[in-house]
Amino acid sequence: MTSDTRPENPESAAPLGFQHHDHGACVSDALASAEAQCTAEGLRLTPVRRKVLELLLREHRALGAYAILDLLREAGFGSQPPVAYRALDFLVENGFVHKVERLNAFVACAHPGKTHSPAFMICRLCDAVAEAQSAPTKGAIGNAARAAGFQIERTVVEAEGVCPACAEKTDI
Question: Within a domain: residue 29?
Answer without folding.
Answer: yes
